[in-house]
Fold this protein.
Amino acid sequence: MSEQIPTPTPAATPAVTPVPPAKREGVVPLWALGLAVLLLVALGVASFFMLTRMRTLEAELHRRVEVVGEQAAQARDASEQEAAGIATYGNRLGSQEVQLAELRARIEAYEYLADDLVRSYDERVLAEVEHALVLGQQQLQLAGDAKLALSALSTAEARLARVDTGRFLPLRRAMANDMERLRRAPMADLSGQALRIDTLLGSIDSLPLAFDRSPSRAGSPAPAKVAAAAEPTLVERLAEEVWAEVRQLVRIERLDRPDPALLSPEHSFFLRENLKLRLINARIALLQRNGAVWREDMRLAREWVERYFDTRARQTDNALATLRQLASVDPGEGLPGLNESMSALAQLKAQRQRPTVQREEKR
């Protein structure tokens, strides 16, 4: 049931004059309240979107962290694998360095052996060339034979030409110069003249001395009578024998030289030996092409034979003829030596010995 509230009557209610509403302190206007609500709603919506965005970013961040972690794990695994690979590579590199060192040692050993083989072969070739040069030099100095020296040089040059790769070029050039000088030198037959002297030396001991010859008889025996004669009597035969003995007591002889030298057997031996030495010295001068010594020795040998030996003997006459023919021989000028070739050979051997010493010092 509803109670009815009694409405006051106008008589009983005093008249009230309308008063304009006054501003109340502390009361928020409606528009401000609406604005605040709108702001709150906007803030809520923004907070919702922000929260949603943050959750999305957090999820993305978590996803990316997981991806980065996986990548880090993969990178760590890869780095571990690379470290293992580097260690393996280092081990392999170390083993390869050891193998390379061994290979280098083998290569050096092979090079050393190859150099030794080449050097031994070259040294053998140089030894053969040196032997040929020494032989040619001896032929020039002792025999004066330029042909044999040229032959020795030609043989040595041909030996070098077969093995030369340019390293023996200075030696070959020096040998060519010596060969050209020998070709221009006069080619006298000194060996043949030396052989004639040797033959003459062999006949010295058989030459008769001047004081040993028998004097010729003063007259020739009476020829036998052609016509038959009577038997001589005993007195006639005795007279003939006595006359023959008397004729032998005194001998008259004409000598070509007034004073034949009288020598004792000992002096005769030394005379023959001195004559031989004189001829040997002349032969050496001939081979050395020393014209002055050659002519002087031949002159003295001829004088000794004419003075001390029997010039009427056939052997002495042959010896004098040989001496005259030899004296007319002109030895000519001295032959050029092989000094340039010998010097080039010595320089080449010195240059080849220097690398050997350096290599031994390095080892």
Q: What stands out?
A: Confidence is low (pLDDT under 50) at residues 1-17, 216-229.
